[in-house]
Design goal:
The chain is mostly helical. The protein folds into 2 domains: 38 residues; 85 residues. It is 73% helix and 0% strand. The protein has 5 helices and no strands. Helix 2 crosses helix 5 and helix 4 runs antiparallel to helix 5. It binds heme C. Heme C binds next to helix 4.
Amino acid sequence: MQSKTIYSHRRKLKVLPTLFVVWVGFSLFACTNNLIKNFPLADQGLLNHAKKTDHQATLSTLDRGRQLYLTKCSSCHRAYPIGKYSTSQWQEILHEMSMNAKFNLQQEKDVTLYVLSLRQLLAQAATVR
Ligand code: HEC
């Protein structure tokens, strides 16, 4: 009887760390997955929107904007979801926040292009209005 109790106690000790590792792994996966979903990498669809504002836009212009958004624009607060604000609200916010982030003109242009193109893509997909 006693040996059985000890056995199940040992098993518990093995199960807990395993559960913990699975939980951490899953959280990391979910987090990365959300990041890609909310702030997608530049692709042709996004570039089509970007080209309406800037003929010379390329995938790497958009990637630079995305990087700035995910690193600098989330250093004082979280990276706000793009669908949270309208295009005209974003224009105002991006100008003001680019000063907060001490962006030069090129950086402001890149981050603005990424955010506004994504905003248009979301509106088109009718995810938000
Ligand atoms: C130096 C810190 C700092 C950096 C860098 C920064 N912000 Fe902010 N941000 C703030 C503070 C403080 C507020 C809240 C007060 C305010 O609205 O001015 C704010 C508010 C916001 C809001 C909410 C506005 C509203 O009215 O609801 C958005 C959206 C935002 N920031 C986006 C950005 C973007 C995009 C960037 C990058 C270009 C950025 N922030 C960089 C400090 C920062």
